[in-house]
Amino acid sequence: MTTPAAPSLFDTPALNGVPLRNRLVVAPMTRISATDAGVPTAAMCRYYGGFARGGFGLIVSEGIYTDRAYAQGYAGQPGLTDAQQAQGWRGIVDAVHHAGGRMIAQLMHAGALSQANRFRDDTAGPSAVQPRGRQLTLYGGTGAYRMPRAMDQAEILQAVDGFAQAARLARDAGFDGVEIHGANGYLLDQFLNNHTNLRQDGWGGAIAQRMRLLLETIRAVRAAAGNDVIVGVRISQAKVNDFTYQWPEGADGAATLFGAIAASGVDYLHVTEHEAWQPAFADGAASLVQHARRAAPGLAIVANGSLAEPERAAAMLAQGATLVALGRGALANPDWPARVRAGRPVRRFDAAVLAPLAGIKDAELALREAPAAWAG
């Protein structure tokens, strides 16, 4: 009997029938470089295209706001709410495809964590609970978060419809798929967590009820995007405003959530932690990827979190990951796949690239102009 070969970062998997040239993914990263109207720019095209020229198999966009109500989170954030925005994204997707990559649109509703919204002066979330922490200065925020209004039934359904409409526009723009942003403390995550969701109606209570908005959104997005488009969902414990947060339900809650996501019909689950290989909970040794694999044995899983070192990235495949996503590692090395495959060392991430604001810089674009040639 032949022993199966261990998975490699340079295998060629597929998601929902869409082939990828390797297992390496660019993680979604907020870059606040769109126009005031939420239209992608030429700088964004060069930025995303550089990752594809550097050999990444799949690129997940920054969070894209999904409606003209409460979804927008940051000034300079791109949207997918109209034909002009979709047309701007088409140029980016075309550039990625031309360089041999695939691209996913991450669909995001900021909810109570909104710092800037050209459509509204107030914020809304599951409950009138002021978010912990302070606004993110890297994205133009200052001071405490505003106290949100509790969304009513019509506003919740409007948010779901916004995700669906954005998924249709993403398909029109040529994206290979969409990722539903259920992580990092934004709206869907706010509904999932019992410290931000104090509702007593059908959208709150036990974890099964708190998952309802996420599952309704998945159903609506799948129906809008179609069965031949990749649909994924991103989940985390940590929030952008509460970095050390862990689920109080622990491993049991993780099993419930991941099992429900696996049964929902998505094509992949994207889990992110600060250090992806570390134990997810204090009372066990398993990482969040390992918890996800146990609860969703047949689902593709993307691992994200401090995996820029090639050995760390490869080790996540042994923990059950299907794909490995790099954020800061990709910023420092837009040619990471080509560089690693050629045996060249990876560059260290320099935090100055995100200062004083996290917009795309000229120096970054210069790095992306001539990445190492992709050799495979």
Structural key phrases:
TIM Barrel, single chain, alpha/beta, 12 strands
Describe the model.
The strands form three sheets. The chain has an eight-stranded parallel beta barrel, surrounded by seven helices. Mean pLDDT is 96; it is low at 372-376. Helix 2 links the parallel strand 4 (58-65) and strand 5 (102-108). The radius of gyration is 19 Å and the shape is globular. 32% of the residues lie in helices and 14% in strands. It has helices spanning 42-53, 83-98, 153-172, 187-192, 207-210, 212-225, 250-263, 288-295, 310-318, 328-332, 336-341, 362-369, and strands at residues 14-15, 18-19, 24-26, 58-65, 102-108, 124-125, 149-150, 177-181, 230-236, 268-272, 300-304, 323-326. It has one domain: Aldolase class I (TIM Barrel). By secondary structure, it is of the alpha/beta class. It has twelve helices and twelve strands. Helix 1 (42-53) packs parallel to helix 2 (83-98), helix 1 crosses helix 12 (362-369) and helix 3 runs parallel beside helix 6 (212-225).
Structural class by secondary-structure content: alpha/beta
The description of the largest β-sheet is: 8 strands, parallel, barrel
Average of the residue pLDDT scores: 96
CATH superfamily: Aldolase class I
Order of helices and strands: EEEHEHEEEHEHHHEHEHEHEHHH
The total of helices stands at: 12
Give the fraction of residues assigned to helices: 25-40%
Domain unit count: 1
CATH topology: TIM Barrel
